[in-house]
Amino acid sequence: MLSIKTTEASEILKVRLDILRKGMTLEDCHFSGDNDPESIHFAAFDSDHIIGCCTLTVNPQSMIKDSYYQLRGMAVLEDYQGSGIGRKLLLAAESKLIELGQKVLWFNARTSAVGFYQKYGYQALGNEFIIEGVGPHYKMLKEIL
Ligand SMILES: CC(C)(COP(=O)(O)OP(=O)(O)OC[C@H]1O[C@@H](n2cnc3c(N)ncnc32)[C@H](O)[C@@H]1OP(=O)(O)O)[C@@H](O)C(=O)NCCC(=O)NCCS
C-alpha cells in the first residue's frame, strides 16, 4: 500500500544514499538546512518501507523574490522507478507549498531528470551547469499558484 507522508531527514538518508549519493556515506547525504524548522521532508512508503523521498528547504539565496522554497533530493528506489511515485512526491510538495501560500518552486535538476519535471510544467532556465561531484544540472522553476 503506497502512501506519502512527511517525515524527518534522518529517515530518508538511506534512499538519498542509494539513489543520489551512490558509493558515499550516510554522512554525505545530509543537506544544509535539513534540520531547519522550515524544512519539510516527504517520504513515499510501500507499507512501512521508505521507497522514495524529496525535501523542501528554504534557500536564502533564492534566485527570484518569490521562490522561497527549493526542492531537493528527489529520489525513488530503482525497483520502484517508473510507477508514478516521483509524480506523487512532487505533487505532495506542491500541495504543501500551496497550503503555505507559496507561489513559486525552484530547484537544480539533474539533466537526466529534466524531462520528468517538464511533464509537470517546470521550465529549465539558462544553461546547463555542473554541480561538483554530482554532475550536469539545469535550474528549473514553476509558478504553482
Ligand atoms: C526522476 C525520478 C525521481 C522520477 O520518479 P519516478 O517515480 O521514476 O517517475 P514517475 O513514475 O512518477 O514518472 C512520471 C512520468 O515522468 C516520466 N519520467 C520519469 N523519469 C523521467 C526522466 N528521468 N526523464 C523523463 N521522463 C521521466 C515517466 O515516464 C512518467 O511519464 P508518463 O506519465 O507519461 O508515463 C526517479 O526516476 C529517480 O529517482 N531517478 C534517479 C534520481 C534522480 O534523477 N532524481 C532527480 C534529481 S533532480
Tell me about this structure.
With 145 residues, this protein is α+β, with helices and mostly antiparallel strands. It has one domain: Gcn5-related N-acetyltransferase (GNAT) (Aminopeptidase). Helices cover 21% and strands 39% of the residues. The chain has a 7-stranded mixed sheet with strand order 1-2-3-4-5-7-6, sandwiched between helices. It starts with a strand and ends with a strand. The mean pLDDT is 94. The chain binds coenzyme A (COA). The site of coenzyme A (COA) has 19 residues, from strand 4, helix 2, strand 5 and helix 3. Coenzyme A binds next to strand 4, helix 2, strand 5 and helix 3.
What ligands can be seen in this structure? coenzyme A
Rg value: 14 Å
Low-confidence stretches: none
Percent of residues in beta strands: 35-45%
What's the gist of this structure?
This protein has one domain: Aminopeptidase, CATH 3.40.630. The protein is 21% helix and 39% strand.
Task: Provide the descriptors you would attach to this structure in a database record.
seven-stranded mixed β-sheet, 145 residues, alpha+beta, binds coenzyme A
SSE arrangement:
Blueprint: E1 2-7, H1 9-19, E2 40-46, E3 49-58, E4 69-76, H2 85-99, E5 104-110, H3 114-118, E6 123-131, E7 135-143
Parallel strand pairs: 4-5
Antiparallel strand pairs: 1-2, 2-3, 3-4, 5-7, 6-7
